[in-house]
Amino acid sequence: MAQTQLQSAREGIVTPAIERVAERENRDPEFVREQVAAGEAVIPTNHAHEGLDPMIIGREFSTKVNANIGNSETTSDRIEELRKLHAAVHYGADTVMDLSTGDELDTIREANVEHSPVPIGTVPIYEAVKRAESPEEITHELLLDVIEKQAEQGVDYMTIHAGVLMEHLPLTDGRVTGIVSRGGSILAQWMEENAMQNPLYTEFETICEIFAEHDVTFSLGDGLRPGSLADASDEAQFAELDTLGELTRTAWDHGVQVMVEGPGHVPMDQIRGNVERQQEVCDGAPFYVLGPLVTDVAPGYDHITSAIGATEAARAGAAMLCYVTPKEHLGLPDAEDVREGLAAYRIAAHAGDVANGLPGARDWDDALSRARYDFDWREQFDLALDPDRARDSHDQTLPGDNYKEARFCSMCGIEFCSMRIDQDARDADGEMDALDTGVDLDASPAAAVNLPPVGTHDTSAIPELPEIDAVAHDEGEPADD
User: Fold this and answer.
1) 118 lies in a domain?
2) Residue 263 and residue 371 in one domain
3) How many structural domains compose the chain?
4) What is the uppermost EC class here (predicted)?
5) What is the pLDDT along the chain (481 residues), one digit of tens a residue?
6) Which of 233, 342, 380, 433 is exposed most, by the fewest CB atoms within 10 A?
7) pTM to 2 decimals?
8) Do 171 and 238 belong together in one domain?
């Protein structure tokens, strides 16, 4: 049986996945191996995911971003989900979670794995509910069957809500928003109806054996995460976290990689404490956080409220950020919502890396700033996180090609443009030195995700997508690294 990345790393083996990760992160392969061996980083790589371009999640590496997609009982089909997957990869998602709860679950999952160069995650309890038709009818055998089947299909990591225990449920009684995790609420109902302990907890070692066979990574779910600021950092949340620490060590004993999911709604002043507590309780296992949302008052703008919290979480040591779209709490995201959510979270991740002083992370910022000061509009667009959005915003008021050479934009006009005034003053009397802030991005030590353009996964092993509408333009697939 093939070994897991963790088992190989512990034996001192630098796997091809580690080599590829080292290349993408501009790090020494031996350092990558040591981080994986210690459990402080994970490389989600199911043996059956043939088109995967390996990536790494860990606090010593560039901050990663996950995009959630998936259909519901009322909306979306296989083609729409592939359209979302295409948008997610194009706009820079490092992993994609298929959270489908509607029809065609197997068809959608298999299509996503086949067409994705990034790791695919799932939440198998959703399919278990669909097959059982009600939460209380789920059996241990059904759960294990679903998990094993998804592992065989090539899913790279799975959210397993094994930390929600019967004794934790009374701790949620005084909450404002109760249990907001879908998986957590399903398992709470199962335990109440069956008067038995969480089956994902009692069967955890069997799940570890399945994961070890296929090298599936655990994403230990936070089923009791707070769904409002009022519930943040409460006894229920931390009781589950303590259990997740125990489960992390159990998975490691089986040679299985682990990351741990974190809270959704947390006031700004509590975010660092949450990250540091997880790192201590879970012995440094990578922390994967949803947001957190730092205020509850902005439905329709929760990609912003959460990106604020995500930036602080990344600065504190969170390894991966789960994006939130403008549709959060309101509806099922479409491809444009995926674009908006990823833009917000790529900004948050990059800002965290800059703040943490990751090698070369700020070089991209400096290169764009130089282009801005030089009025090199085309270079500024090319360096932008979302070049099409930047170009379109400029061209709404100054669309002509001649304005690509102009020393002003429509905000200030030529008379009040501060950079033009500064340049002219430096040229006029020589009392102020001319500026030279050139940056050679080709020589930057930054990781690939901290260099333009985003969405540069190796897609050479991915089959052609079926005929779907372009995401937002006609540029086709992202370029290879």
Assistant:
1) yes
2) no
3) 2
4) lyase
5) 799 999 999 999 999 999 999 999 999 999 999 999 999 999 999 999 999 999 999 999 999 999 999 998 777 788 889 999 999 999 999 999 999 999 899 999 999 999 999 999 999 999 999 999 899 999 999 999 999 999 999 999 999 999 999 999 999 999 999 999 999 999 999 999 999 999 999 999 999 999 999 999 999 999 999 999 999 999 999 999 999 999 999 999 999 999 999 999 999 999 999 999 999 999 999 999 999 999 999 999 999 999 999 999 999 999 999 999 999 999 989 999 999 999 999 999 999 999 999 999 999 999 999 999 999 999 999 999 999 999 999 999 999 988 898 899 988 998 899 988 888 888 887 777 777 767 899 999 999 999 999 988 999 999 887 666 544 433 434 333 3
6) 433
7) 0.94
8) yes
Task: Tell me whether residue 161 is annotated as binding.
Answer: yes
Q: Is 224 labelled a binding residue?
A: yes
Asked whether residue 410 is assigned to any structural domain, the reply reads: yes
Question: Whole-angstrom Cα distance, residue 69 to residue 76?
Answer: 10
Both 279 and 383 in one domain: the answer is: no
- For residue 175, being part of any structural domain is answered with yes
User: Token pair of 76, please?
Assistant: 């979306």
**Do 54 and 45 touch, CB atoms closer than 8 A?**
yes
Residue 114 lies in a domain: yes
Do the annotations mark residue 288 as ligand-binding?
yes
Complete DSSP assignment for 183-206 = HHHHHHHHHHHHTS--HHHHTHHH
Residues 413 and 267 in one domain: no
> Is residue 282 a known part of a binding site?
no
Q: Is 284 annotated as a binding residue?
A: no
Residues 367 and 254 in one domain: no
444 among annotated binding-site residues: no
Is 222 annotated as belonging to a binding site? yes
Nearest-Å Rg of the Cα atoms of the chain is 23
Question: In terms of domains, do 191 and 321 share one?
Answer: yes
Run of H or E residues at 272 = helix 268-281
Residue 80: CATH number of its domain = 3.20.20.540
Contact 70, 93 (CB under 8 A): no
Residue 339 assigned ligand-binding role: no
Tell me the two tokens of residue 49: 């995911």
Residues 243 and 345 reside in one and the same domain: yes
Q: Is 10 annotated as a binding residue?
A: no
234 annotated as a binding-site residue: no
Judge whether 369 is annotated as a binding position: no
Strands 217-220 and 157-160: parallel
Strands, E assignment, 334-476 = none
Supply the range of the domain harboring residue 428. Answer: 361-444
Instruction: Give, in order, the Cα–Cα distances in Å from 345 to each of 1, 320, 341, 470.
Output: 38, 10, 6, 22
Q: Do both 323 and 426 map to the same domain? A: no
Is residue 362 marked as binding? Answer: no
* Residue 409 annotated in ligand binding: yes
